[in-house]
Design brief:
Keywords: Chromophore, FAD, Flavoprotein, Lyase
Number of helices: 21
Number of domains: 3
Cofactor: FAD
GO molecular function, one term: DNA binding
Radius of gyration: 24 Å
Order of helices and strands: EHEHHEHEHEHHHHHHHHHHHHHHHH
Strand order of the largest sheet: 3-2-1-4-5
Organism: Haloplanus rubicundus
Bound molecules: flavin-adenine dinucleotide
Family: Belongs to the DNA photolyase family.
Length: 468
């Protein structure tokens, strides 16, 4: 007997760790570990519960069942291995520091009982250490990483195990509710989870939107991205299935522009892998700057400004639309994530960790690799980050990427009847004009031009360039 420990691989097919090695009957297990849960938040737990439901149904249709337990992973897995006389436990390799420490403890515990651990790379096409510079170092510049990633052969999807390979547990272990686990209902409407939902979303996206991804991915109103991020984070879709489908879309592309668009999308999949490699080799980045400055960056403390940012009440329409989308949908468009992250760090001059922490609580797709990569990029502290002197202007960003203010109006009802030009000029209007135009919408909480100068000075001091 082999236990398969599901974690962020909540799917039956294209699951390398589930089907490897091939001989033993498999008993699938999921563990709610309080130590891991203490880093979780309602949106993600809700998505996981939904996905577990779908996964359990899949097993039940095959006369098996998912064993769901609560407790410390080393204790629970040791107990189950003992109860079911298992020779081994399989799982997919974790890449974060927290996940790897937990896995080491499990492995040690099992080894003490003579139970083997089969740890398989599954979440990435190319595991950390397999794409490196010619000197064997991990890349810190994405474009070089991408060149190698793009051409490297990728393994194809693998089938789900047949029913004859699955074992049935002796007990019925119900899936707990959010309340059982001590979580509140999420504030946002959480998108449905589960491997079937992921499959539908992937097929929908590859039928049409992937061909306009290049043109439309920076237009938040177009809703033209895949929205597969929560599925990739929780593993309701396998990376090989995704890539195979994307390659088929490329083969069926109607013209060169459509083919190019598919390549742009593949580039985003490579960013995901790039940031997982960065995290693997630098686990401390979840709390520390990747990039050292000569002096500490003097981030400010300003709880009122932080609260205004979290609530979408900054008086910068594109920022507020993004922050309200996050609260409403537990997701935010990528371009707008970049804008709100830049606003937090370069306009409010607040530490990127404040923003990362809020995203961690609110995003359904939060994973430390991508979230941290995104935040440190925006804060100019990361690998291949935005240079500190290139500071987004939130008004021009809004005008360029949401010219008709369609996205803004979707999430900021106070601005619905207002002309797009006035929305994009909100910071230029006098207080009286603002009161007349949209009395319920706040004045800008900071002056962008002033803050830009202060941000430059803050970074120059950190670089030791302030002339002292
Ligand atoms: C400040 C900030 C925080 C972010 N936090 C997260 C996070 O917690 N989880 C997360 O999955 N992504 C995060 N991203 C990256 C990106 O915004 C999301 O992956 C994307 O918006 C998800 O929507 P989608 O699935 O429709 O993306 P698509 O555009 O359809 O892209 C497909 C997939 O490629 C990957 N991807 C796309 N863009 C990026 C990127 N810039 N970096 C790394 N991978 C990418 C994701 O897995 C995504 O699902 C963050 C970006 C920023 C700027």
């Amino acid at each position: 007997m082999r236990l398969h420990w599901h974690r962020t691989d909540l799917r039956p097919s294209d699951n390398l760790a589930l089907v490897t090695p091939a001989e033993d009957p498999i008993l699938p297990v999921y563990v709610f570990d309080p130590r891991i849960l203490s880093h979780a938040a309602p949106p993600r737990v809700a998505f996981v519960l939904d996905s577990l439901d779908a996964l359990r149904d899949w097993y039940r249709q095959r006369e098996s069942d998912l064993v769901v337990v609560r407790g410390r992973a080393p204790d629970e897995l040791a107990r189950l291995a003992d109860d079911y006389d298992a020779d081994s436990v399989s799982w997919a390799q974790a890449y974060s520091g927290l996940g790897r420490r937990r896995d080491d403890r499990v492995e040690e515990r099992l080894a003490g009982m003579g139970v083997d651990a089969h740890v398989v790379h599954d979440h990435l096409h190319h595991e950390p250490g397999s794409i490196t510079t010619n000197q064997g170092e991990p890349y810190s510049v994405y474009s070089y990483f991408w060149k190698k990633w793009q051409d490297r052969e990728k393994r194809g999807s693998v089938q789900a195990p047949g029913a004859d390979r699955l074992a049935a547990p002796d007990e019925d272990t119900p899936i707990p509710t959010l309340d059982d686990l001590g979580f509140d209902e999420p504030e946002a409407e959480i998108p449905p989870g589960g491997y079937m939902e992921a499959r539908h979303r992937l097929n929908d996206f590859c039928a049409e939107d992937i061909y306009r991804y290049d043109d439309a991915r920076d237009d938040p109103a177009a809703d033209a991205t895949s929205r597969l991020s929560a599925h990739l984070t929780h593993g309701t879709v396998g990376v090989r299935t995704l890539h195979d489908r994307v390659v088929r879309a490329r083969e069926g592309a109607p013209d060169d522009a459509a083919r190019e668009s598919v390549e742009t999308f593949r580039g985003e999949l490579a960013w995901r892998e790039f940031y997982h490699h960065v995290l693997y080799f630098n686990p401390e980045v979840v709390t520390e700057n990747y990039r050292d400055y000569e002096h500490p960056i003097e981030w400010r403390e300003d709880p009122d400004a932080l609260r205004a940012w979290q609530d979408g009440e900054t008086g910068y329409p594109i920022v507020d639309a993004g922050m309200r989308q996050l609260r409403r949908e537990a997701w935010m468009h990528n371009r707008v994530r970049m804008i709100v992250a830049s606003f937090l760090t370069k306009d409010l001059l607040l530490d990127w960790r404040e923003g990362y922490d809020w995203f961690r609580q609110k995003l359904v797709d939060h994973n430390p690799a991508n979230d941290n990569g995104g935040w440190q990029w925006a804060a100019s502290t990361g690998t291949d980050a935005q240079p500190y002197f290139r500071i987004f202007n939130p008004m021009t960003q809004g005008e360029r990427h949401d010219p008709d203010a369609e996205y803004i109006k979707r999430y900021v009802p106070e601005l619905r009847g207002v002309d797009a030009d006035l929305i994009h000029d909100w910071h230029e209007l006098s207080p009286t004009q603002r009161r007349r135009t949209a009395p319920e919408y706040p004045d800008p909480i900071v002056d962008h031009s002033e803050r830009r100068e202060q941000a430059l000075a803050m970074f120059e001091r950190a670089r030791g360039e302030d002339g002292d």
